[in-house]
Specification:
7 strands; 4-stranded mixed β-sheet; 3-stranded antiparallel β-sheet; Nucleoside Triphosphate Pyrophosphohydrolase
């Protein structure tokens, strides 16, 4: 398996009422997050976001449905995930996007990546996230969409 590129997207999927979709990681039960994923080759980041949303939830969003926040986060890759990257790679650059849906929808999780999904009001969703960057993006939603 080729190594992952240390460039990724975070896609916060939410409703107009600011309910947020969270996914439970299969490799780490109890770790809840928004859609995330690494850029493949030189694909545009909007395409990375669109592809990851489809792969992880079954939601077929167009590139125009996704909002690029023009925000990046640099963080240290958790030790338990470093085996996915080339030796010596310790940091990742994450690009933040959002996808606004009219209402909650049923999703189809990728069983190799996630165990379950749930929709939560934005404050509860932020508190449930293990990642600070995911939490902070969710807490920013009311400032961007109300």
């Amino acid at each position: 398996m080729p190594y992952k590129k240390p460039v990724s997207v975070l896609v916060v999927i939410h409703t107009a009422a600011l309910d947020v979709l969270l996914l439970e990681r299969s490799r780490y039960p109890g770790f809840w997050q928004s859609v995330t994923g690494s850029q493949e080759d030189d694909e545009p980041l909007t395409e990375t976001a669109r592809r990851e949303v489809l792969e992880e939830t079954g939601i077929a969003a167009s590139a125009g449905d996704l909002l690029d926040w023009n925000q990046t986060n640099r963080f240290e890759i958790f030790a338990e995930w470093r085996d996915r990257y080339e030796p010596g790679v310790k940091e990742n650059i994450e690009h933040v996007f959002s996808l606004r849906l009219p209402d909650r929808v049923a999703v189809t999780v990728a069983p190799d990546e996630h165990l379950a999904y749930r929709w939560l009001p934005w404050r509860e969703a932020a508190a449930a996230c293990f990642s600070w960057s995911n939490r902070d993006a969710i807490l920013e939603l009311p400032n961007r969409f109300t």
